[in-house]
């Protein structure tokens, strides 16, 4: 069975139809998805700006992460759950959307970037946490993250309005 065939089967389920045709459910899911993106990407923005040395220069990165990470992870979970439900309601539309494919690729890139940062760069934070100069690898992780999240948000909006 092809990927399109799988999407067509998903799209034809009563569950997907109920979400898609609901007067309230689809807009509620869309609103929760956008709120999840706003909080998640907003908190990630603060961390990225700190990594780039642009914002919160007097704050230790470890303190910024400690305070924002619970918000980021909770909002990200809301975004994933609602995004999955929205995909289920419009799987064929998403299959045909180049914007959806680019968004998924960027989400995977952001996940890899975050994992590499937490496994390879952040363990050495004690050596530079109080330093005004952020290491190049940390700045690179922040720049890549910021770029990917701007793209993810742009592609998400394009899915709704593009073909």
List keywords for this structure.
single chain, 163 residues, mainly alpha, 7 helices, 80% helix, 0% strand, elongated
Could you please describe the fold and organization of this structure?
This protein has 163 residues and is mostly helical. It contains seven helices and no strands. The longest helix is centred in the middle third of the chain and has 29 residues. The protein is elongated, with a radius of gyration of 18 Å. The two termini are 24 Å apart. The model has no long low-confidence stretch (mean pLDDT 94).
How are the SSEs placed, and which strands pair?
Layout: H1 3-12, H2 14-21, H3 25-51, H4 61-89, H5 91-96, H6 98-121, H7 136-161
Helix pairs in contact: 2-4, 3-4, 3-7, 6-7
What's the short version?
The chain is mostly helical and 163 residues long. It has helices spanning 3-12, 14-21, 25-51, 61-89, 91-96, 98-121, 136-161. 80% of the residues lie in helices and 0% in strands.
């Amino acid at each position: 069975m092809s990927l399109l065939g799988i999407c067509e089967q998903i799209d034809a389920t009563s569950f997907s139809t109920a979400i898609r045709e609901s007067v309230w459910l689809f807009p509620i899911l869309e609103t929760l998805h956008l709120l999840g993106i706003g909080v998640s990407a907003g908190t990630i923005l603060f961390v990225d700006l700190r990594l780039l040395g642009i914002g919160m220069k007097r704050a230790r990165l470890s303190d910024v992460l400690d305070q924002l990470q619970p918000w980021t992870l909770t909002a990200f979970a809301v975004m994933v759950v609602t995004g999955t439900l929205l995909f289920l309601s419009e799987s064929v539309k998403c299959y045909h959307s180049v914007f959806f494919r680019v968004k998924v690729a960027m989400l995977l890139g952001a996940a890899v970037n975050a994992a590499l940062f937490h496994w390879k760069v952040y363990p050495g934070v004690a050596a530079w946490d109080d330093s005004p100069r952020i290491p190049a690898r940390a700045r690179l992780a922040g720049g890549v993250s910021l770029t990917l999240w701007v793209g993810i948000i742009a592609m998400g909006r394009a899915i709704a309005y593009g073909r």
